[in-house]
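Quick one: structure tokens for this chain, please?
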Amino acid sequence: MKIRLFLLSFCFVLSGCAGYQLGGQKPNHLVGITKLAVPTFENQTLEPRLASLVTNALIKQIQMDGAFQIVSKDQAEAVLEGVVVRADRSQFRSSRTNVLRTSQLQMRLSCNFIIRDTSSGQPIHTGNASGISYVILDSNIQNSEAQALEDAAQRLAGNLAVEISEGW
């Protein structure tokens, strides 16, 4: 009786893992793509060098994820094209003594992207991604803003990479 109970409970423990797999789970429409080209994004904001900052962060994130191999356009099965459409700064916290003086800054970046099949040019996947960063301002405001922009670009790249490699 004890052996049957043990075997029954052992079967329930093993069945708890049913359906789970280790590794990445690409969306169904991206499963066949292994080589991806990522040209420099277009920048529709007034922020200089933002397109290359976002593109480089995205390439690093995709390489760390390992779901796609980054290659040139002539070797790629698909091309990820993107447009940075928004870069906003806003006051997140103010000084206690002067509410007009910013003590913490919020930086938000948004982009639209599309993955196209290189052979047919047809869109495979479209979407948008955003990244938000918060930074405490110090005496060098430009340096603080640059750090917030870089952090927001990395967060945007992480969100975009998760969408195309994990599907959510």
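The mean pLDDT is 86.
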